[in-house]
Amino acid sequence: MITLDRRRFLETAAAVSALAALRPRAVSAAGAPKKAVLISMLPKELSFRDRFQTAVDAGFAGIEMQTVTHPRVADEVKEASAGTGLRIHSVMNEDHWAFPLSSAEPQVVERGVVGMETSLRNAKLWGADAVLLVPAVVNPQVSYQDAWTRSQKVIRERVLPLAQELKVVVAVEEVWNKFLLSPLEFARYVDDFASPWLKAYFDVGNVVFYGYPQDWIRTLGPRIAKVHLKDFQMDRGRFNWKNLGEGDIDWVEVRKAFSDVGYDGWVTTEITGGDAAYLKGVVARLDRFLSGQKPV
What we know:
By secondary structure, the protein is of the alpha/beta class. The chain has a single domain, classed as TIM Barrel. Helix content is 43%, strand content 17%. Helix 2 (48-58) runs parallel beside helix 3. The termini are far apart.
C-alpha cells in the first residue's frame, strides 16, 4: 500500500526545494503557454512537410511527434520542421502500452527500453526537449506496488542515463493505465527520482474520470513539463470525446490554475483531427482558453 505520511511529505518537500536550482524550469511567472498540435490530428494523406505547413497556417507554433524508427523518415520529419518553422517540442513514445516497463517479463521490458531509446534519440535529432512516457500499466498480472517499484527501477537504471546524456526530459503521464490515480501520488512518483530529467506530462482530460484538473495542476505545479488538452462529456456513465469547450471540463478554472503555478510551456491539443478550416477553429478555441475564457 502506497501512503504519503507527514514525515515523507516533509522529506519530499525538502528534496523538491533542494532541486529547484538544478531543474530546468518548466514554468515561469510571466508569459503565456505556447500552442501545439499532435501529429495525429493532421491530414495523414499529406507529406510531413505539407502537414507541418497546414499546422503553421492554422496558427500552431509547435507539434508533438510520435516515435519514428526509420532513419530516413526521421530525417524527413526534421526537414519538415526546418522548412516550415514548426517547432517539434516533444515526442510521444509509442511502445509503452505494448511493452510496459512494469512488466515481469525481461524481454518485454527490454523492448520498452529500446522504444524509449529510439524516442529520446528522435527528440535529440528534432530539437525536442521531452519524451512522453506512460511509466507503468496495472493489470491482473501486475499489482500497483509492482508497477511502482519495477517502473521506477527501470527508468532510473535504463532510461534516465540516456535522457541526461541527450539533455531530454522524460515526462511521465497518467493515461487510464490504472496507475498514479491521484495528484499526490503523481507528485510523489516524480519526486522519488530527485532528477531534473524526470517530470510530469499532465493531461487535462485524462484525470476528469476521478478528479478535477485544476486540483492536479496546483498539486503538481513546477513538476509539469508538458500539457495535453482534450475534452469529454459524460453520457450515461461513459465519456465521449468532444472539441475543446464542449465537454465537462471547467476550462476557466483550468486556465486559472495554470496561471497560479506560472505554467508557460507547451499545450498540445489531443483531440479529433480534421482539415485546415477545422484546425483553425481549434486554434481559435485555444486562444479563447489562453485568454481566460471558455473555449466556445
